[in-house]
UniProtKB/TrEMBL annotation:
Protein name in UniProt: ABC transporter ATP-binding protein
Molecular function (Gene Ontology), one example: ATP binding
Entry keywords, A to Z: ATP-binding, Nucleotide-binding, Transport
Keyword ATP-binding: yes
Domain spans labelled ABC transporter: 3-226
Matching SMART domains: AAA
Length: 238
């Protein structure tokens, strides 16, 4: 059983401009999969392909029908300019069929964790980038989906927020949720991910856990960073 099955033959922002191709992978229940790759490799484009916001996609994306919905935490926060943070919670809760009291209980916990209680009736456009990112995180954790799709969560969050975010993610995984997370922070990825997808030049060049990558590269005991460097060197297009 998979929570998500991805089979992208080719995709891009316009029909005649292919940005990613031959991206095939699955995510199993409870798995945390790291989506890695250098700048411009195609990680965000792959994620946009999954959530259906790319103009051109040839392939299939299958979400497990029986599972609860997914939540997407974008790299750049997106919110409604004229809604306060609290109104964002109310709107999200109503779309997801949550009662006000369920929403208030969960949001109360999350606002406390991320120390945003004092600004709950403010407009997110007046927030710092990190505060806006925390709002995106709170909205995702409010929904409690079976799959979290997260685009580079670590840039912009302060160290305490990163720790609290990882704790929440771990708790969700213990409840069976799966995670696909793109990141450049390889030491954290190595510590928390079950498996890694490496994308370079718009193509998937590796898919495996730490041990599989080390064996494939014949680099026993190598860190993820070293495996990553070696894979990029082996697949260098220059
Ligand atoms: N909105 C867009 N329209 C057209 N091309 C785009 C758009 N966004 C990204 N691209 C192009 O798609 C390619 C892959 O970019 P993408 O954002 O997927 O990379 P990434 O792996 O997420 O990189 P980073 O680590 O820098 O965030 C790049 O060549 C980029 O210029």
């Amino acid at each position: 059983m998979s929570v998500l099955k991805v089979h992208i033959n080719e995709a891009g922002y316009k029909t005649n401009e292919i940005v990613i191709k031959d991206i095939k992978f699955e995510i199993k229940p409870g798995e945390l999969v790291g989506l890695l790759g250098p700048n411009g490799a195609g990680k965000s484009t792959t994620i946009k392909g999954l959530i259906g916001t790319l103009e051109y996609i040839n392939g299939t994306i299958e979400f497990d029908q029986d599972e609860r919905r997914y939540a997407y935490i974008p790299e750049q926060p997106v919110f409604y300019d004229d809604l306060t943070m609290w109104e964002h919670f109310q709107f999200t809760a109503s779309v997801c069929g949550m009662t006000d009291s369920e929403m208030e209980k969960r949001v109360g916990e999350l606002l406390k964790i991320f120390r945003l209680g004092e600004v709950k009736h403010h407009l997110p456009r007046t927030f710092s980038k990190g505060m806006q990112q925390k709002l995106m995180i709170i909205l995702a954790f409010l929904v409690r989906p079976s799959l979290y799709i997260i685009d580079e969560p670590f840039v912009g969050l302060d160290p305490r927020a990163i720790r609290d975010f990882l704790k929440l993610l771990e708790a969700e995984r213990e409840n069976g949720a799966s995670v696909l997370m793109s990141t450049h922070v390889l030491d954290t990825a190595e510590r928390i991910c079950d498996r890694f997808l490496l994308i370079a030049y718009g193509e998937m060049i590796a898919n495996g856990d730490m041990k599989e990558l080390q064996e494939m590269l014949n680099l026993p005991d190598a860190a993820l960073f070293d495996c990553f460097e070696q894979l990029l060197e082996d697949n260098d297009h220059d």
